[in-house]
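Long-time lurker, first post. I've been practising inverse folding by hand and with some scripts of my own, and I keep getting stuck on stretches where the structure tokens seem ambiguous. Below is the full token string for one chain I'm working on. Before anyone asks, I'm not after the true native sequence, just a reasonable design that respects the backbone. If someone could post their per-position residues I'd love to compare against what I wrote down in my notebook.
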């Protein structure tokens, strides 16, 4: 069931368009990662989904109801959604009182408020901090308190802007686990922004990629800025994000891409993965280290660090034959038909 439906939604500030989404459905109960560089429009989209900003044009529906412009209607929608900022602001009171504030605004009676505060703090592992000064918490503890403050309001949707960007490694893991737990046990729809492709692959069931305010043509992670150069031997060098060079052999019947810059999408199901020693098997192979392995339907998703994070999808049968392990070094081979080129200097796909 679609919880949000966006159609022809744009957001403009003066003469600058920061968001331009043709169509987007967000399913109830899902966990979504929103990827994209700074300035791509991620925070603007979160603000629109939280009903804190209105689109300049287009329509936005929530639970089958078209979002209206009246203050009463917007307030009713906002009370179903909580947005947790990257740098949450705490009151100069205790941890428990920070959580209690929102409950008092909603006129929850005192005895019930205390129970809800205790449950929220228990969920995020901060029960012992109830009477502590909120402004003295560490960055990771503050982010967990922000989650507790949100959970106490029992939102239907939890929006998180870079929830682990400013915390240490230990709290990154704790917060990631908390988001999964909240999604699984409460059925809360969660949408979080991140720059971390590995985190998105590990936590989310769905990935959305924003580029210059628009949704990228694919939701797969293997979308990179690239530079193309031709060689006399018929090879094409595709350099990903200025760091990783993939050498391709184009067959005579294949369209040779022109030199230049653009973007490339690499089909994760067409990349072949094999065990390796310290030597590459051919000039077309790239050695990388396995960072993540997880089931995805009938496929196994493997994230390999080759200098950029590359997602590979293999069959369960292939996985059982190879039994690759996290931390293992493997070979990736990229056939020319695995790459789809996009951009001003690339042929149309």
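-- Answer (accepted) --
I ran through it position by position. Result:
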């Amino acid at each position: 069931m679609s919880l949000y439906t966006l159609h022809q939604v744009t957001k403009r500030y003066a003469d600058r368009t920061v968001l331009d989404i043709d169509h987007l459905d967000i399913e109830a109960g899902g966990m979504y990662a929103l990827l994209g560089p700074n300035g791509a429009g991620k925070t603007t989209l979160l603000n629109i989904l939280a009903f804190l900003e209105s689109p300049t044009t287009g329509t936005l529906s929530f639970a089958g109801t078209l979002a209206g412009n009246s203050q009463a209607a917007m307030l009713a929608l906002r009370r179903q959604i909580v947005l947790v900022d990257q740098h949450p602001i705490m009151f100069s009171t205790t941890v428990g009182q920070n959580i209690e504030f929102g409950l008092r605004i909603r006129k929850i009676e005192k005895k019930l408020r205390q129970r809800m505060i205790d449950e929220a703090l228990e969920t995020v592992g901060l029960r012992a901090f109830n009477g502590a000064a909120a402004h003295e918490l560490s960055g990771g503890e503050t982010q967990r308190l922000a989650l507790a403050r949100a959970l106490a309001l029992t939102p239907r949707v939890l929006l998180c802007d870079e929830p682990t960007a400013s915390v240490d490694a230990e709290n990154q893991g704790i917060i990631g686990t908390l988001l999964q737990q909240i999604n699984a046990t409460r059925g809360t729809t969660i949408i979080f922004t991140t720059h971390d492709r590995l985190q998105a692959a590990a936590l989310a069931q769905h990935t959305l990629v924003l580029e210059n305010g628009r949704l990228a043509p694919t939701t797969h992670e293997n979308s990179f800025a690239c530079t193309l150069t031709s060689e006399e031997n018929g090879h094409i060098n595709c350099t990903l994000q200025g760091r990783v060079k993939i050498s391709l052999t184009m067959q005579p019947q294949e369209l040779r891409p022109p030199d230049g810059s653009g973007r490339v999408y690499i089909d994760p199901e067409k990349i072949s993965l094999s065990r390796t020693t310290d030597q590459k098997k051919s000039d077309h192979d790239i050695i990388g280290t396995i960072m993540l392995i997880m089931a995805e339907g009938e496929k196994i998703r493997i994230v390999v660090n080759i200098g950029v994070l590359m997602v590979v999808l293999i069959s369960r049968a292939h996985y059982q034959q190879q039994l690759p392990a996290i931390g293992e070094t493997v070979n990736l081979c990229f056939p020319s038909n695995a790459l789809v080129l996009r951009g001003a200097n690339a042929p149309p796909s």
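A couple of notes from the structure itself: The mean pLDDT is 87. The chain is about 25% helix and 35% strand. Happy to go over any region you disagree with.
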